[in-house]
Design goal:
The complex is a heterotrimer of chains A (286), B (273) and C (277). With 286 residues, chain A is α/β, with parallel strands linked by helices. Chain A is built from eleven helices and ten strands. In chain A, helix 3 crosses helix 4 and helix 3 runs parallel beside helix 5. Chain B is flat and about 65 Å long. Classes of the chains: A alpha/beta (286), B mainly alpha (273), C alpha/beta (277).
Chain lengths: 286, 273, 277
């Protein structure tokens, strides 16, 4: 289930005074099972990119190919695309509308034409993935807590059984505990179900702790797409476009400037502890 | 994007008409509408045409744009004219085919109605073209405030308008987002008959209502935090000051009104009706 | 300036059972202080904030602002204009469709004369660095800009205290930086007392004092340094510590001899540097 984007351009509000280039000749290829962090400022073109990936908008030029589907062709069956690529938008709880949690999660699969039996099996499947228990199914989604609402909304997208899942800042507004819960759900989903995940986030620490590869978008251009280690090792490049690296990476970089080399590709606390142990205890032996 | 629609079609230009006190402008527009309905002779219509042309010129707004304002109402204008054309009785029959009969009075009435409606639409569009929504709201509030004593909620109405103007773009943007999210969940807004399409809107309308109520609730708290307690004793950042231009405009308006009244009273009617 | 004595608050839930939100909170905040109130969602921190300007009135205990009890109905508007409040969603606090009209809203409500309003509006927009946007429509601004307009709307009331209820939660990193910078300026340049409600540890670090609320009670009340060194405890109540603090903490657990109250990247770098020498 790979994604290929070739020379894609997209401009907003063409011909109006608000005309703005959102994507300028962007190309990349995502492999099946990748776990990608998508970073960039508000207005950099991130949102446009994720909307392109499930055909919500069509590029002005270029090609978007998801698996065997060419999203730029006219004849494409959108239902197939929507069931392949799921998007969890920012604050997804604001799109809940049904009387019960069950009905809300069922909305997506029902639109895909699934039978009632299939839907109930899907819901049974999906609930544990987002850490919800079945006794909330008959409740109104509006009487749940903020964190629960968000899980229900994510479950609503998972119920469409997407092979590619895009999440736009799924942890926005949550407290640290809520954030960690959601991130570990996503990680589990990727590891156990081999879903290709694209995680849009503003938190470099979160990205560093979860994904394998990072895609950086700035000013309508794709400026980096590489492993986490490689992207964070060029902290100057990120700094120039106003993005940061995780605190741990900054500490490692500062130490390097002071003449202490802990090694490259250190972006989590665990990795830093290991590197420091090796360095200090190694010195002791000498 | 939806949120880029300019509301109330205000054209922010720097012209003497833009600078007029909104209260005067609102009163002038009302007076203009009444006068247009008084007019029923060629000299009166000429007077209106010249006056309107003069105001358009002063406002620096292109005449084409003002003419365009009548476009959405063209159907009504033509419809009214046709009704008048065929359904007015009278003796001087100009044309007859079976039961369809056009009389001279009918022609005159049709032209009368069409012209009046056209002038009316153009005149009131000029008001919104040259007055920002916030000034308009301010003007309405001040004009209505004398009636607050007899229970007319002038301030409340104005505050409602202000908040509506403020939140329309926000809600449009939100609607767009919700539509996008439901589409991604496979919702189909484009196919099916009218009932199916109406039903397809529920997943958009319910979240929109819920979020509007949440916003209203939060806004009310925020307003209380900013010491809002109704219109009593409120002051205002922007003072409406009547200056020389307003008096000149008033004089022009009076001359214009006098002309229409004179045409009407002396029945200056070349056609002889 | 702010005295909170035995503040207790509860409400009846759907089943008619009384749920305690705040329990015997005692807190004094001095003039000019910058205090962060930290707690996870549902800890009671927002309820606490809403007691500071009489949106909620205490069910037990009392809240006194500059000698005035918040439950005195005659002084309600004095309290509200003395204690300004900024909320999470900037969109839902802006009333007017032009920036300067919105900033004028509070002084208009307070019957301030027009010339004085003009001055207050200009000063307030200047203080948050939004002067050049005074004639813009709020919906065309970025999140951080909108929130600064909302803050200007509060400054125009000339409050002594501003309570901020998660003002950066909905913003992107640039917006956060703008708003936090504005908050620090208001505190340092204008001497306004700041109570910042947050669950973001990187913001709490900027305060002079951190009050941690959990399950409606004050858990710790100390300097950021002394609060965040209790890494295990902070994490056990669903909060986090800055990554630099976390790294130092992990190193101590591994038996390294470094300071236990590291807060910033620079301090952490310094400690590890000493270790490696």
């Amino acid at each position: 289930m790979s994604i290929t984007v070739e020379n894609v351009c997209y401009t907003y509000g063409k011909g109006s005074p608000f005309e703005k280039k959102a994507l300028d000749n962007v190309s990349f290829h995502i492999e099946d099972g990748d776990f990608i962090g998508l970073i960039g400022h508000t207005g950099s073109g991130k949102s446009t990119l994720i909307q392109l990936l499930n055909g919500l908008i069509k590029p002005d030029s270029g090609k978007v190919i998801v698996n065997e589907y060419d999203l730029t062709s006219e004849k494409i069956d959108m239902k197939k695309v929507r069931s392949t690529v799921g998007i969890v938008f920012q604050y997804p709880e604001y799109q809940l509308f049904e009387e019960t949690v069950y009905k809300d999660i069922a909305f997506g699969p029902a639109n895909l034409g699934k039978s009632d039996e299939e839907i109930s099996a899907i819901i049974e499947d999906v609930l544990p993935l987002v850490g919800l228990s079945s006794d909330i199914l008959d409740k109104s989604p509006f009487e749940l807590s903020g964190g629960q609402k968000r899980r229900v909304a994510i479950a609503g997208v998972l119920a469409m059984n997407p092979r590619i899942l895009i999440l736009d800042e799924p942890t926005a507004g949550l407290d640290p505990a809520g954030r960690n819960d959601i991130l570990s759900c996503i990680k589990k989903l990727h590891d156990k179900k081999n879903v290709t995940v694209i995680l849009v986030s503003h938190s470099m620490e979160d990205v560093a702790n979860t994904v394998n590869k990072i895609m950086v978008i700035s000013d309508a251009n794709l400026i980096a797409f590489d492993t986490v280690g490689n992207v964070f090792s060029d902290s100057e490049k990120l700094k120039n476009i106003g993005l940061n690296v995780p605190q741990v990476t900054r500490i490692v970089n500062h130490l390097r400037q002071k003449g202490i080399e802990l090694g490259s590709g250190i972006y989590t606390v665990e990795a830093a502890v290991e590197a420091i142990k090796k360095r200090v205890r190694g010195n002791d032996i000498c | 994007m939806l949120k880029d629609i300019t509301l109330g079609q205000y054209f922010p230009l720097n012209s003497p008409i833009h600078k007029l006190d909104p209260r005067f402008k609102i009163m002038f527009t009302l007076a203009f509408i009444v006068l247009v309905f008084f007019a029923d002779s060629v000299p009166a219509y000429l007077g209106i045409g010249v006056f309107l042309g003069f105001v358009i010129k002063l406002s620096k707004i292109k005449a084409r744009i003002v003419l365009k304002s009548a476009k959405p109402l063209m159907f009504i204008i033509i419809f009214t004219a046709i009704i008048n054309l065929f359904l007015t009785g009278g003796d001087n029959v100009v044309f007859q085919w079976k039961f369809l009969k056009i009389t001279e009075t009918g022609i005159v009435n049709a032209v009368n109605m069409a012209l009046r409606l056209l002038f009316l639409v153009m005149g009131s569009s000029l008001l919104t073209y040259t007055t920002s929504p916030i000034m308009l709201t301010d003007g309405i509030e001040r004009l209505l405030s004398p009636f607050a004593g007899i229970g007319l909620p002038a301030h409340e109405l104005a505050m409602m308008m202000t908040i509506a103007l403020r939140f329309i773009p926000t809600l449009l943007e939100e609607t767009e987002k919700i539509i996008m999210a439901q589409k991604a969940r496979g919702a189909d807004f484009e196919s099916g008959n009218i009932f199916k399409r109406a039903k397809a809107l529920i997943p958009v309308l319910v979240p929109l209502f819920i979020s509007s109520f949440r916003r209203a609730d939060e806004l009310a708290t925020a307003m209380e935090c900013r010491c809002y307690r109704g219109g009593k004793n409120r002051t205002s950042l922007k003072q409406l000051k009547i200056n020389g231009n307003d008096w000149i405009a008033l004089s022009a308006m009076l001359v214009f009104a006098a002309w229409i009244v004179v045409c009407d009273v002396f029945n200056l009617n070349i056609m002889g009706y | 300036m702010i005295e909170v004595k035995d503040l207790t608050y509860s409400y009846d839930n759907d089943e008619g059972v009384s749920e305690i939100v705040l329990k015997e909170i005692n807190l004094n905040i001095k003039k000019g202080e910058f205090v962060a109130v930290l707690g996870h969602n549902g800890s009671g921190k927002s309820t606490f904030a809403k007691h500071l300007n009489a949106i909620y009135l205490p069910l037990g205990g009392k809240v006194v602002i500059d000698g005035i009890d918040t439950s005195d109905p005659d002084k309600l508007w004095d309290i509200r204009s003395m204690v300004g409040m900024v909320f999470q969603n900037p969109d839902n606090q802006i009333v007017a469709s032009i920036v300067e009209e919105d900033v004028a809203f509070a002084p208009e409500n307070l019957s301030v004369p027009p010339e004085e309003i003009r001055k207050r509006v200009d000063d307030a927009l200047e203080a948050v660095g939004m002067s050049e946007y005074k004639n813009h429509a709020p919906h065309m601004l970025s999140g951080g800009q909108k929130q600064r307009v909302a803050i200007a709307g509060i400054i125009a009331m000339k409050p002594d205290i501003i309570v901020m209820d998660e003002p950066t939660a909905m913003l992107d990193p640039i917006g956060r930086r703008e708003v936090i910078k504005t908050i620090e300026d208001l505190n340092q340049k204008f001497g306004i007392t700041i109570v910042l409600i947050t669950h973001n540890m990187d913001e709490a670090v900027k305060a002079q004092r951190v009050v941690v609320i959990d399950a409606g009670r004050v858990l710790i009340d100390d300097t950021p340094r002394n609060v965040f060194k209790n890494v295990e405890m902070i994490r056990s109540i669903g909060l986090d510590v800055p990554q630099a603090t976390m790294l130092a903490h992990e190193l101590i657990k591994e038996g390294f001899d470094i300071r236990d109250d590291v807060l910033t990247v620079d301090e952490c770098t310094e400690e590890i540097y000493k270790l490696c020498q």
